[in-house]
Structure formats: C-alpha cells, structure tokens
Input
Amino acid sequence: MRALASSLVFGVWLVAACGDDDASSSSGTGAGATTGAGAGATTGSGATTGTGNTSTGSGNTGGGGSGVGGGPPQGTPMLVAVGYGGRRLSSLDGLVWENDIIVDPNGGDDNNLFRGVGFGDGVFVAVGGGSEGQVATSTDGVSWTFQSPATSWIGDVAFLGGVFVAAGGNGLRIRSTDGGVTWTDDQGYYAGHYRGIAAGNGVFVAAGHTYGGGDQGLISTTTDGVTWTAEQTGGATFHSITYGAGAFVAVGNDRCSVSSDGATWSDCAISATDLGHVVFGDGLFALRAAEGIFTSADGMTWQSVAAQQPPQGILGFGAGTWVGASWPGHLFGSADLLGWQTATVDDGPAIVDVQLGFIE
Output
C-alpha cells in the first residue's frame, strides 16, 4: 500500500491503506451520496431515518476513538499516536514526540498495524491487526502490554461508562470491562467492515461499510457492548466517526452525516470532496478535505478554514494542540488550524490515529 503515498488527502489514503482480509470489500465513494444508514433507508438529499435505540448521557471528545469518560480528567494530559509497523509514540504537547516504538519499519496491512487508539480509566488501548485483531494496552503511553488477539482486525475502540467497545473487520464487535485485557461478547460474522467507533449520549456508534454486492454505509449501535441494534445500511460508505457537542459525525470520501443518537441521520452541509479523518476538539469538529481544512461547531454546517495547509489529515486534539499528519511519518501541530509547526519529519511508518489521555 505504500504506492498510495501520493494521495492528496491523508484520510482518504488511510481508508485504502487499512486494507481488508476479505478481497471483495472496498472503502467506496459516492459523490452526492445520501445519508440514512437505517435498514431499508431511502436515497435523497434530505435526512433519512434508520432503526436503533436512543440514549442520553455524557460522552467523549476526541477523534474516532474514545475520550476520558465520566467526570473531570485527572492527571497530566498526554497524546498517543499509533500507526503502521506497530508504531506507537507519545507527546505532552503535540509538538515534541517521544517514546517512539517501531516493530517493523516496512510494515503494511499486516498484524503489526495499529488502526486506532482509545483511552479510558487511565488506560490507553491500541487496536489493529490484519489476519487477526491486535490489542496493546498502556497506562503511561510508554510501556505497552500485548493482549490476546481478536478473531478479525479491529478498526477502532471507544470508552464509555467503564467499558471499552471495539469494532472492526467482518462485523467484529467486542467489549472489555477490565481495561482492554480480555474481550467478550463477539457479535459474530457480518459482511461488513467497521472503520470507526465513537461514544456519547450513552451510546456507542460503530460506522463503516458493507461489502460483496454493492458497498453501502453501515451503522450499528449499543449501550453496553453486549446487545447491538440490527445493522443499518444505506447510502455511501463511512470511514471515520467521532462524537462531540451532543452529536455524532460520520464521514466517507464524499459523505458527511450527523446524528444525535446513531439512529436518525441527516446530511451535513459541507462543500468539499475527499473527506478525511474527522475529529472533535476545542469545541469544534475538524477534518481535512481535498479543498483544505473545514470546521463545524455542530457537525451540521461546515466552514472552510484554509485552502492550503501542510497536514494531509487531522488525527486528533489535546493539550491545546491539533495534530495533523502527512505521509509517511510526518506529524504537525497547530493551536488554531491555521499556522502549523512541523513536529516530526522522518521516513518511519505512517501515523493513522491520535488519542488524548491522562497519566499519573
């Protein structure tokens, strides 16, 4: 997948690079694609409605992974980045990165790949894999412990109410109540891949796409990681999801949808194409598109911030810094999404996700 290094938008490259076990799957596109991930959802430019349960409660902030969950965060803020070749590194300010671990400098879509990272109850949980799911945990962002692998690759992980919930390839959805050490309640095979998961309003929402006969957007929700709503399909595919300001925002290459509960979805108002990784931080949703960086206060209405900026993708926010990345291992930091400072420039494996946590 390194041949995709010239991709215009890092987020779009990420969807293609995080390959699948099933040869029939793809990330898909869909200019003008509609929202509505509900079962039997109709097409059209307006909102559509699916099935699912509505929950209320506090949620997380941050990227496609998880936030700190319940109550004010305690400890020192730390950002953890993960990516190809088993790469993990950490930063206290988003500008100086340390503790760089690389298992395979030439890693690809294999079992060393970390696709996402979450945080909760004092634990960072990094997930990924290729032919099987990879899980590693850390309480300080420096030392990591590998846990038992899952049955399929894991796309992302989120935390809420004392529970980590992860979702990934071939319908994989699992949960952990012991800080990512053991995982249970596997939902079994489904002909779809979950690329991201976010938590808020008392509910986890996993987003991705079906495969094998016309790719469509895929949504599934749960309040506890044990019982899930029926898979909701329709419209163009998703590759990233986040929660903030009382809303879930899910995006695909040319699709942006917003929901308060993961059940009913509406089209976002954004004049952009090739939408990359979507994150929430500092009271704003943000993403990098082909036309530049866009932000939104509510997930529905988006504004262009700047047409030309160094990062090809925005991966996270924390310690007052937005973190962006470009191929292969370049990280950038910005306080306002306008002026960017180069944080790392190397030829190491690409970074694909960043998570804020708090250490003792």
Q: What stands out?
A: The chain has one domain: 2-21+37-359.
